Amino acid sequence: MASDNESRMEKTVNALKEEYNTIRTGRASASIFDKVRVDYYGTPTPLNQVGTISIPDARSVIIAPFDKSIMGDIEKAIQKAELGLNPSNDGKVIRIAIPPLTAERRKDLVKQAKTTAENYRTTIRNIRRDGNDDLKKQQKAGELTEDQLKTETDKLQKLTDKYIDEINKVYEAKEKEIME
Fold first, then answer.
1. From first to last of its 180 residues, what are the pLDDT tens digits of the chain?
2. Cβ–Cβ < 8 Å for 64, 54
3. Separation of alpha carbons 168 and 142, rounded Å
4. How many CB atoms lie within 10 A of CB 113?
5. Which pTM does this prediction carry?
6. What is the three-state SS of the chain?
């Protein structure tokens, strides 16, 4: 029972880390394009499946499409993704200069990261609530004594605290990364 709750909480923290990878900091990274979908022959396809994304230096990205005929579609998809980036197409590859973040943009990104972290904390608390409900049902069914219920509830609370702390650490690291 507890391991099911723990695995759900672990998955929640991992999902937060993945979502944070898509938040653009001042540095070039292939993961900021994870949510970009290119219309490839009528099918929304992840950008990394229609081309190679390379990072020649900290401030630029080069995308080399496997099929040169979709360069315009890739440009449109990047602009539509609202990443605040302007792709330029030279006929062979798409170059993207990563502009340094303004102080205002950094504050917005930190605010976005904070909201995201709070949503994930709520998810952890919901898992705790579900776990507590299950424990109460087990006690009503006579599978747990009053003492066992208290012990299991305390274990679940400790697990919740551990994963909320982990979410806080992930958030603080992202905030630091955005503000550098």
1. 567 999 999 999 999 998 888 776 777 788 888 888 998 888 899 988 999 999 888 888 999 999 888 888 888 888 888 777 888 888 889 998 888 888 888 888 899 999 999 999 999 999 999 999 999 999 999 998 999 999 999 999 999 999 999 999 999 999 998 887
2. yes
3. 38
4. 21
5. 0.73
6. CHHHHHHHHHHHHHHHHHHHHCCCCCCCCHHHHCCCEEEECCEEEEHHHCEEEEEEECCEEEEEECCHHHHHHHHHHHHHCCCCCCEEECCCCEEEECCCCCHHHHHHHHHHHHHHHHHHHHHHHHHHHHHHHHHHHHHHCCCCCHHHHHHHHHHHHHHHHHHHHHHHHHHHHHHHHHHC
